[in-house]
């Protein structure tokens, strides 16, 4: 990596130490499974260097994301919208269905019972495999989807005392959601978990109101 590359052009005016700090922080937020505490990297602690890290990420279609655990990176909202619009086959549909079930059981239901913070995607309430198998999906499809989701960091399998099989909770990739992506996902979860609920009606009304304003 050199500052001749357009992605790393923002390093041109930094000294050698600052360049090393920026690159180290960039690699950490991109490749660490969990958010990185800013105390470990000067380029995450110091705002001018952090802006350099974010500038490089934005040229790559990504952005810095801050969580309660530290810093990580994720797709920019505009890039994520393009990626989400790609057509998907049966495998992707099954993966989304299984992931949605995990989110409903491990996040939406506990959150509705005031057991989880509204913005938290970390959950101590694993979804039992039995709950997934009650869906209309085949057992083989569910197992294949869980394997792919684990490999992608979208779900994590955890075991509790006396439970040899365990259950599934959201994986570390959920740390990489931007604030806007977290809000959209929360709304989608409301629509999936309780489509006839007052909250779902409020979500739908909020989504159509900008269209009405533009048409007036």
Strand and helix layout:
Layout: H1 16-31, H2 42-45, H3 47-59, E1 62-67, E2 70-75, H4 77-84, H5 90-112, E3 127-128, H6 129-133, H7 139-151, E4 155-158, E5 167-170, H8 179-193, H9 198-215
Antiparallel strand pairs: 1-2, 3-5, 4-5
Helix pairs in contact: 1-3, 5-7, 5-8
What characteristics describe this protein?
single chain; 216 residues; Arc Repressor Mutant, subunit A; 2 domains; 3-stranded antiparallel beta sheet; two-stranded antiparallel sheet; globular; disordered C terminus
Could you please describe the fold and organization of this structure?
This protein is mainly alpha-helical and 216 residues long. The strands form two sheets. The chain has a three-stranded antiparallel β-sheet with strand order 3-5-4. The chain is built from nine helices and five strands, in the order H-H-H-E-E-H-H-E-H-H-E-E-H-H. The protein is globular. 26% of the residues are buried. The chain folds into two domains: 6-80, Arc Repressor Mutant, subunit A; 90-215, Arc Repressor Mutant, subunit A. The longest helix has 23 residues, at 90-112.
Concise structural overview:
The chain has 216 residues and is mainly α.
Mean pLDDT comes to: 85
The CATH class designation of the largest domain is Mainly Alpha
Share in β-strands: 5-15%
Helix percent reads 40-55%
Dominant shape: globular
CATH structural fold name of the largest domain: Arc Repressor Mutant, subunit A
What would you call the structural class? mainly alpha
Number of helices: 9
Order of helices and strands: HHHEEHHEHHEEHH
Give the uncertain stretches in residue-range form. 211-216
What would you report as the Rg, rounded to the nearest angstrom?
20 Å
Q: Distance between the terminal alpha carbons, to the nearest Å?
A: 52 Å
Describe the oligomeric state of these chains in a short phrase. single chain
Q: Numbering strands along the chain, what is their spatial order in the largest sheet?
A: 3-5-4
- In total, the number of strands is 5
* Count of the domains: 2
- Main sheet overview: 3 strands, antiparallel
């Amino acid at each position: 990596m050199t500052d001749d590359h357009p992605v790393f052009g923002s390093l041109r005016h930094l000294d050698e130490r600052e360049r090393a700090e920026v690159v180290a922080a960039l690699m950490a937020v991109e490749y660490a499974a969990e958010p990185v505490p800013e105390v470990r990297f000067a380029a995450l602690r110091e705002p001018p260097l952090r802006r350099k890290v974010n500038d490089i990420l934005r040229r790559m279609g990504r952005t810095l994301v801050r969580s309660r655990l530290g810093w990580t990176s994720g797709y920019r909202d505009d890039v994520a919208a393009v990626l989400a619009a790609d057509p998907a086959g049966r495998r992707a549909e099954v993966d989304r269905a299984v992931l949605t079930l995990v989110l409903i059981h491990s996040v939406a239901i506990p959150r509705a019972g005031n057991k989880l913070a509204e913005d938290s995607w970390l959950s101590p309430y694993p979804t039992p495999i039995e709950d997934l198998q009650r869906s209309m999906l085949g057992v083989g499809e569910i197992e294949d989807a869980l394997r792919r989701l684990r490999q992608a960091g979208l779900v994590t399998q955890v075991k509790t005392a006396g439970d040899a099989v365990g259950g599934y909770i959201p994986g570390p990739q959920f740390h990489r959601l931007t604030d806007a992506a977290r809000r959209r996902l929360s709304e989608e979860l409301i629509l999936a978990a309780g489509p006839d609920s007052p909250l779902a009606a409020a979500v739908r009304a909020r989504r159509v109101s900008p269209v009405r304003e533009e048409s007036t």
